[in-house]
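Worked example 2:
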Amino acid sequence: MSARYAVYALPGALSPDPVRPLAEAWLGRSADGQPVTGAVPTGWTRAEVDAITVDARRYGFHATLKAPFRLADGVAEGSLYARASELASRTAPVTIPRVRLHRLDGFYALVPGAPAPEVDALAGTVVRAFDDLRAPLTDAERARRRPERLTTRQRELLDTWGYPYVLDELRVHLTLTDQVPQRDQTRVEAALVEHFGGYLSEPFAGFLGRDMLVDALCVYAEPEPGAPFVLRSVHPLEGSRSVTPPSPSTPVAAAAFAVPAFGNHP
């Protein structure tokens, strides 16, 4: 089976959140197939925005909980949805606190503006809960992760969970662009501030720095290699207790909150 699946958080999947239509307008696409009018910031063309959002648009607006994977032999798609429903039914909603725009290793994203242990814990739970449904990485899939560039810990996570940026290496983010050359970063930052900050100054004052609700597990699918990811199912988080946050918070997570809004991530 060539299809891949992922479990994502999508703000606005259930409870209305102004960030979702904003992000989808910026990317020029909604993963649920609804029509979207692409944003055109001042001094830009839509083609220029499309050029810096190729991969971000293909994956759709989201925060990764379980990175894309192929289903193991003998595992039906319905088993994935059933697992998502079961886990969501006993897990409480969480919030991504004090969201801000940020540059992460050359691309731009919305990130927590404060430690987010409950979100980290939810992501860790999802990583573990779906792993028995995941096919092992092929040699080609592993090679695409450039293991020679990863740390020892990241290679260990890649080989155990199929993705190197999980658990203590997780950096929660909602991607808005692809890699942006340094010469273009000032212009891109201005466009992002105009689109996400200016629009929300009224009547949604305080968006940059407010909490973002995660109230569902969303299953996305890539029907064939290179195809856009599509939203396949939404599973409300209906439990009364959150998953247990890790203690103490990892230094990697904590370091992300001591930088300027558009500073380089450590």
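Residues 25 and 77 are 30 Å apart (CA to CA). The chain has one domain: 4-255.
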